[in-house]
């Protein structure tokens, strides 16, 4: 499932990828354990290949849209 998000949208991690890449100028691969299933983050940009730059509590990572879902503001 491919969703379109906008910068500033809140998203939730619905599955853990095998690894994540930092969104730094010189990206580095990190184990997926640096983020947790269900963790929420904010979209800070779109990258090629259906990837998104997401700011989580402990850093900003590139995550494919298949691992994300939009978080509804109504609670």
Helix tally equals: 0
Biggest sheet strand order reads 3-2-6-5-4-1-7
* Helicity, as a percent range: under 10%
**Could you say which structural class the secondary elements and strand pairing correspond to?**
mainly beta
Distance between the termini: 24 Å
How would you describe this structure in keywords?
mainly beta; SH3 type barrels; seven-stranded antiparallel β-sheet
Could you explain the architecture of this structure?
With about 80 residues, the protein is mainly β. The protein has one domain (about 10-70): SH3 type barrels (Roll). It has no helices and seven strands. Strand 2 (about 20) and strand 3 form a beta hairpin. It is globular. The chain starts with 9 loop residues before the first strand and ends in a 5-residue tail after the last strand. About 15% of the residues are buried. The model has no long low-confidence stretch (mean pLDDT about 90).
């Amino acid at each position: 499932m491919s969703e379109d998000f906008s910068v500033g949208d809140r998203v939730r991690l619905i599955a853990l990828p095998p690894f994540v890449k930092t969104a730094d100028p010189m990206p580095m691969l990190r184990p997926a354990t640096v983020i947790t299933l269900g963790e929420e983050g904010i979209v800070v940009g779109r990258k090629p290949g259906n990837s998104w730059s997401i700011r989580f509590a402990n850093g900003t990572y590139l995550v494919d849209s298949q691992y994300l879902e939009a978080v509804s503001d109504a609670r």
